[in-house]
Write a structure and sequence with these properties.
74% helix; mainly alpha
C-alpha cells in the first residue's frame, strides 16, 4: 500500500472518529437540555401542587381550630349544666325542708285546734307523692278552720 493511501485511511478514520465524537457530544447536549426542561416542568407542577397542599393544610388547621372551639363550648355548657343541676338539687332540698316545716305547722295547728278532726296519718308532701308537681292528685289543701263568730 502506498503511503498516500495509508494517510488517506488515517485521515478518514480520524474524521470519522471526530464526526462520531461530535454527534455523541451533540446528542448528550440535547439530552441534557431536554432533562433541564423536563426538570423545570416538574418543578413548576410541584410549585402548583405545593400551593394546593398549602390550602389544604390551612383548611385542616381551620377545621382543627373549629373543633377545639366546639370542644371548649361543649365543656363550658357541661360545666353550666352541672352547676344548674347542683342548684336544682339545693333548691329541691330547700323546698323539701320548707315542706316539712309547713307540714309541722299544720300538725301543730291540728293539735292545738279543738275542732280539728285530723287523723293520725301524716300528710303527703310533694317529695313523696306519686303525682307530678303542680297537680292536685286528689289531695286537698289544708283543712278549713271554722271561725268563731
Amino acid at each position: 500500500m502506498a503511503t498516500s493511501t495509508i494517510v488517506l485511511i488515517i485521515v478518514v478514520a480520524v474524521v470519522a472518529l471526530l464526526l462520531i465524537a461530535a454527534l455523541a457530544w451533540l446528542a448528550r447536549k440535547k439530552r441534557t437540555e431536554h432533562r433541564r426542561v423536563e426538570a423545570g416542568d416538574i418543578r413548576d407542577k410541584a410549585v402548583a401542587q405545593s400551593h394546593k397542599v398549602g390550602q389544604r393544610e390551612a383548611l385542616a388547621d381551620e377545621t382543627a381550630a373549629k373543633g377545639r372551639a366546639a370542644q371548649a363550648e361543649a365543656e363550658a355548657k357541661a360545666a353550666h349544666a352541672k352547676g344548674l343541676q347542683h342548684q336544682a338539687q339545693i333548691r329541691r332540698s330547700d323546698a323539701a325542708t320548707a315542706r316539712d316545716e309547713v307540714n309541722q305547722e299544720f300538725e301543730r295547728a291540728d293539735k292545738i285546734d279543738p275542732d280539728s278532726q285530723a287523723s293520725d296519718t301524716p300528710r303527703e308532701d310533694s317529695e313523696t307523692s306519686d303525682t307530678p308537681p303542680g297537680t292536685s292528685g286528689g289531695k286537698q289543701g289544708p283543712p278549713a278552720v271554722p271561725r268563731a263568730g
